[in-house]
Amino acid sequence: MIEIKNLNKSYQIGEKHLKVLVDVSLFIQRGELVSIIGKSGSGKSTLLNMIGMLDNYDSGEYWFDKNLINNVSESDAAHYRNKYIGFVFQTFHLIGTKSALDNVALPLMYKGIGKKERSIVAEKMLEKVGLGDRIHHLPNELSGGQKQRVAIARALVTNADLILADEPTGALDSKTSQEIMELLREINREGKTVLIVTHEAEIANSCDRKIEIIDGQIVKSDE
Ligand code: ADP
Ligand code: MG
Fold first, then answer.
1. 3-state secondary structure at position 134
2. Which position has the higher pLDDT, 223 or 52?
3. Ligand 1 pocket, residue 38 CB under 6 Å
4. Are 47 and 213 in contact (CB under 8 A)?
5. Burial annotation 50-82 (CB, 10 A radius, 16+ → b, else e)
6. What count of other Cβ atoms lies within 10 Å of the Cβ of residue 170?
7. Most CB within 10 Å of its CB: which of 66, 97, 123, 221?
8. In terms of residue numbers, what domain contains 159?
9. 44 CA to middle of ligand 2, Å?
10. What is the pLDDT of residue 110?
């Protein structure tokens, strides 16, 4: 599904040239549950944003389902994201003034799906993540774990094949983290490809495969 070859990315800050990703190569098959583990500042979010087509790279190749993704226009990137990719973030990125139901329904609006159908599908997704009794709650009326469940429902609602999660348990206590990981594993068992970025060994170990990144370089990728 994802093939990255010798990818490089750097930032220019004043006089300084900061290499963030150095010759990164990796391969992720459809249906895998993979973690990328590394310390803060090692380039994990940069790599994930690249895979999610939120950002470009300087050199190398990124293939998504046999399509070379390179300098794609913002509209093409948005098309890919809407169709194939769901995102989950550490800080949830929910819209505070919208109910759980409306947050989950939002990606369907961008797909041009009518209001009634949006609500039906969004409610079904919230039931799936265990929040069928919280659909009209606002984000600030939900616990951290519940907010992350809403975000996961939103990532799933368009039936994306690939779920990208950037430190999805980073803001949660350890018991809630385990519950969220169990939900992500269940989603993977149902056929989604799931890629989780984390700095926590325990989270990485509960995935099927681990890719380790140090200072922008992949140091270990177990089979
Ligand atoms: P991680 O997610 O592993 O903590 P990041 O990918 O966020 O790491 O960042 C990797 C490095 O790139 C850090 O040194 C960070 O300061 C730098 N960086 C990230 N984004 C930018 C940016 N937009 N401009 C300049 N430097 C950046
Ligand atoms: Mg990060």
1. coil
2. 52
3. yes
4. yes
5. bbbbbeebeebebebeeeebeebeeeebeebbe
6. 17
7. 123
8. 33-44+74-221
9. 5
10. 87
Tokens linked to 43: 């380039």
In which band, very low, low, confident or very high, does the pLDDT at 220 lie, cut at 50, 70 and 90?
confident
Whole-number Å distance between alpha carbons of 188 and 161: 10
Residue to probe by mutation, ligand 1, list 46, 57, 200, most atoms within 8 Å of CB: 46
Residue 62 lies in a domain: no
pLDDT higher than 90, residue 50:
yes
**Ligand in nearest proximity to the CA of 168:** 2
- Domain-embedded: residue 57: no
Ligand found nearest the CA of 42: 1
Which of 11, 203, 212 to mutate for ligand 1's pocket (most ligand atoms within 8 Å of CB)? 11
Residue closest by Cα to atom 12 of ligand 1: 20
Ligand whose nearest atom lies closest to the CA of 47: 1
CATH number of residue 173's parent domain = 3.40.50.300
**What is the model's pLDDT at position 59?**
96
47 Cα nearest atom in ligand 1: 6
Residue 45 in contact with ligand 1 by CB distance below 6 A: yes
**Rounded CA gap, 153 and 104, in Å?**
6
25 within domain boundaries: no
Phi and psi, residue 65, nearest 5°:
50, 50
> CB of 46 closer than 6 A to ligand 1?
yes
Q: Give the total number of structural domains in the chain.
A: 1
Q: Does residue 19 fall inside a structural domain? A: no
